[in-house]
Amino acid sequence: MTNETFSKVNEQAEKMFMGPTRDYAKLAMDYAEKMIDAQMEAAKTYTDIGMKQARAALEIKDTEALKAYAEEQQKVAKEMSERVKGDAEKVVAMNQDFVNEARKLVESNVKTASEAATAQTK
């Protein structure tokens, strides 16, 4: 085999396998990073809220304070449900973006493979 043949084989391997593999790995790593960031942010927020509520519970000294605490818990529960809903929507959007980008990669790779196969047959 000549250097030219090796170059062609390497070029085809890059176009057909290595390039698409790197592109997908980059996409997957970016997605994982975004997902971890979102999870860490949510965990910190939920922890902060929980700690705030625990501290508020420690301040209960009489029935009026207990009543105020119970009323506050209703507000906190509503805020938490809205926050969880927002976080879930954020994750769904990230998943959809990942799926769309992966689909674009697959379509691009199929097109490249098809063009290479057509060029080979000529």
TrEMBL record:
Identify the Pfam families for this entry. Phasin_2
**Entry-linked InterPro entries:** Phasin
In this chain the Phasin domain maps to: 10-110
Which superkingdom?
Answer: Bacteria
What is the recorded name of this protein?
Phasin family protein
